[in-house]
Amino acid sequence: MSEASEELEKLAAKAASEAIQLDRQGLKALAIPKYQRATEILQKLCSIHPDAQQNKVYTEYAEQYKRRVKELRGIAAESLGGDTIREEKAGAENLVLREKPDVKWEDIIGLEEAKKAIKDAITYPFKRPDLFPLGWPRGILLFGPPGCGKTLLAAATASEINAAFYCVDAASIMSKWLGESERNVAKLFETARLVSENGQPAIIFMDEIDSIVGVRSEEVGGEIRMRNQFMKEMDSIIDKNKKLYVYIIGATNKPWSLDEPFLRRFQKRIYIPLPDTQARLSVLELYAKKLFRIRSDVDFTRLADETEGYSPSDLHDIIQAVHSRIIREFFEFGKPDDMDAKPREITKQDFDEILNIRKSSVSEETLSQYQKWFAKFKAL
């Protein structure tokens, strides 16, 4: 397999993993574009190497993700009584979904500084616009390591003010709308403004926003037009003379890749860091509640100390790996056919052995990059 194909495979795995995690949390609107992104990449891999042996596996996964997207759309439409917004032209129905996220501030562990900045920018102005004669920020950039809560923060913000939530995957826009992308970007913002004018706030959440406004050495005409349209639409939203309740929240793991002219359009630039010790303890205890029996020798305070530099996603993977270890042992050496039989208790040794083979997904060099960028461009 070529280096490029290996990179695509990693991107597909990342998108699929994020989709599954969001799906399990009940965040259907957020999971859909991730499933679609994974499907697109897998299909691209099959087209690059049509005779490759692994294509059968890629195709099976792609079909699974397609079926799950269809199921999620049916669930969303039923739960909303047909109030799901879908744009019928140019495949936009696969990219835009309005749904009220079921995430509250209290569901997000830590990130108090980020919550405060978002409340200042969105919650308070929405509740008392008369107290903000100079207007309020409408462009918010969330940046930081993967798996630290950027998507959940956007979802909780929408839930907090009962906003129409448009979850758009930037990479999917690039692949699906190339050629008429600027028209569809305009339509997206037009729809959000219409919702706002009818009395409901609207939040456009764009994940991987660096895919649209990142610095590139080469661009085709369609990409340039889309970027220009995106800039134009953002300018129309941040116009302080308009009392629109339309916000755009962008999320990125690579803020240094953003084109600087776009940064001023994000009046709030908020760093979403790795969790501190107390937050890691809370995350570990939260995930551990879903496990089978845990022996008393498991000290989560110690585990929180030993997992410095781990993201919440990393901690989830550790708990999941420990659970998988117990289940595998139960199937191989226990009595899985006996419905009364249960896996053994999880022990300190189980966690220790998993920690020996699972390290943080964020390097110290990358953390240093985040801190330097934040020091230069912070806007809380």
Q: Explain this structure to me?
A:
- This protein is of the alpha/beta class.
- The protein has helices at 3-24, 28-48, 55-79, 112-127, 150-160, 170-176, 181-197, 210-213, 221-237, 260-263, 277-288, 300-306, 312-333, 348-357, 364-377, and strands at residues 139-143, 164-169, 202-207, 246-252, 268-271.
- It has a 5-stranded parallel beta sheet, with helices on both faces.
- α1 (3-24) packs antiparallel against α2, α2 (28-48) packs antiparallel against α3 and α7 (181-197) packs parallel to α9 (221-237).
- It is globular.
- Residues 76-95 have low confidence and may be disordered.
Q: Which features characterize this protein?
A:
single chain, 55% helix, globular, Helicase, Ruva Protein, domain 3, alpha/beta, 7% strand, 380 residues
SSE blueprint and pairings:
Blueprint: H1 3-24, H2 28-48, H3 55-79, H4 112-127, E1 139-143, H5 150-160, E2 164-169, H6 170-176, H7 181-197, E3 202-207, H8 210-213, H9 221-237, E4 246-252, H10 260-263, E5 268-271, H11 277-288, H12 300-306, H13 312-333, H14 348-357, H15 364-377
Parallel strand pairs: 1-4, 1-5, 2-3, 3-4
Helix pairs in contact: 1-2, 2-3, 7-9, 11-12, 11-13, 13-14
